[in-house]
Amino acid sequence: MEHVFDSKAAPGRRAVLSPMVPEIFRVEKYRKETLDTYTLELKPASGTGEHRFGAGQFNMLYKFGVGEAAISISGDPTSPNPLIHTIRAVGTATKAMAKLKVGDTIGVRGPFGSCWPVEAAKGNDVLIIAGGIGLAPLRPVIYQVLAERRKYGKVFLLYGTRTPEDMLYRAELEKWRARFDMEVHVTVDRASSEWHGNVGVVTTLLKKLVLDPDNTVAMICGPEIMMRFVAMDLIKKEMTLDRIYVSMERNMKCGIGLCGHCQYGPTFICKDGPVYTYDQVIELLARREI
Amino acid sequence: METLEPILAEHPFFKGMPPELLKLLVGCASNVKFEAGDFISREGQEASEFFIIRQGKVALELFSPTHGAITVETLEDGDVTGWSWLLPPYRSHFDARAVDLTRAIRFDGKCMRAKLEEDHNLGYEMLKRFVRIIAERLSATRIQLLDIYGTRV
């Protein structure tokens, strides 16, 4: 398969704005997903315009007076209004954003970065593997694939998380699982005996999956260690590196490849990533200095 | 009379096992069924058997007085319950509980140990299969221990 980066055709930021100037958005809805994760639905404060994006892209969200954070867009690319971000409160800015209320404003720069190969995957089976908050950047892929379901082969979603309480988008997972045209498997790292589902790391879900390696595109997002082990198992299943896509994460600042904060080997994650084919990163993943 | 041999031959655990060796195991095997909630083995009790799961789901649990039963792993169709039957002192380290109706093949531990001692080719074939499972579970456990979805990794 050719390396096709949808980012070349990715919907970019509207030309009238400098990429360094945030546009003001207003919080339309705030939803608590888990103990430390929440979803914001945003609309332009001006009341007009829509924020087109490609699955896998991110925005720089600016909590005024506190700081910016790079957050993947987790909404539907085929219906980009409102703009949806699922955020984990881990740093100063994201913890401050967790305190936003409906009607509050937030700055948005973006969208930035490369996209998942959703267009290029047409005609193939699609294997989506998410770990923890990694489901958020992959949810746009699911929306887009399901919007044109007949253009894809089999669709698999494997999702691993820490405990049943840490699961994102539970209602949607149940809905996707109930479909006849999508295979959904969920596992947690630990659970009480009340939990009826799988317990074990996400790689255990791969064990029994029968793949057609030459006609499958895998998209993986989660902690780096998880992505490495998942990719290793996919390689054992004879998938080639150019069919495996991962989304990398580093400290992104400018979003346009100028500041160098997110340099990853010869690339900048904000500009050349965050979505890479595995053959682009396999050497870098093994280097401790990066 | 129909034996369990064809069923064993189809199970992923025995994939690639020479038929003449598989034949030797059939005498140690029996068909069993567990209802949801049934305990298959209990922590600390003699590990006198192991099971290959044909259909269903089994939870490996540890009980803590403060947290209740904690599931550390679930096993499904094609999986094997464990290897405590193979190593002294032959005691189970976990509770194994059927989560759903589970159909399995039970192997008698003593019978199996005798066969593996007697025929080292069979012993080696079985050991290769168990080592693979042990390695897979060790690797999975290491990842679990890292708590990769936490905030520290």
Taken as a percent bin, the fraction of beta residues of chain B is: 25-35%
**Strand line-up in the sheet with most strands of chain B:** 2-6-4-5
Number of domains of chain B: 1
Which CATH class of the largest domain in chain A applies here? Alpha Beta
Question: What does the largest sheet of chain A look like?
Answer: 7 strands, mixed
Q: What brief labels describe this structure?
A:
heterodimer; A: 290 residues; alpha/beta; Elongation Factor Tu (Ef-tu), domain 3; Rossmann fold; 2 domains; 7-stranded mixed β-sheet; 6-stranded antiparallel β-sheet; 7 helices; 16 strands; 20% helix; globular; B: 153 residues; alpha+beta; Jelly Rolls; 4-stranded antiparallel β-sheet; 3-stranded antiparallel β-sheet; 4 helices; 7 strands; 33% helix
Structural commentary:
The complex is a heterodimer of chains A (290) and B (153). Chain A is an alpha/beta fold and 290 residues long. Chain A has 2 domains: 6-112, Elongation Factor Tu (Ef-tu), domain 3 (Beta Barrel), CATH 2.40.30; 125-285, Rossmann fold, CATH 3.40.50. Chain A contains 7 helices and 16 strands. Chain A has helices spanning 92-97, 135-147, 170-177, 203-207, 224-236, 269-272, 278-285, and strands spanning 23-32, 37-44, 58-63, 67-72, 83-88, 105-112, 125-131, 155-161, 183-188, 191-192, 198-199, 216-221, 244-247, 263-264, 267-268, 275-277. Chain A has a 7-stranded mixed sheet with strand order 11-9-8-7-12-13-16, sandwiched between helices. In chain A, strands 4-3-6-1-2-5 form a 6-stranded antiparallel sheet. Chain A has a two-stranded antiparallel sheet with strand order 14-15. Chain A starts with 22 loop residues before the first strand and ends in a 5-residue tail after the last helix. Chain B has 153 residues and is α+β, with helices and mostly antiparallel strands. Chain B has 4 helices and 7 strands, in the order ααβββββββαα. Chain B has a 4-stranded antiparallel sheet with strand order 2-6-4-5, with no helix packed on it. A 3-stranded antiparallel sheet of chain B has the order 1-7-3. In chain B, helix 3 (109-118) crosses helix 4. The interface between A and B is medium-sized, with 30 and 28 residues. Strand 10 (191-192) of chain A pairs antiparallel with strand 5 (68-76) of chain B.
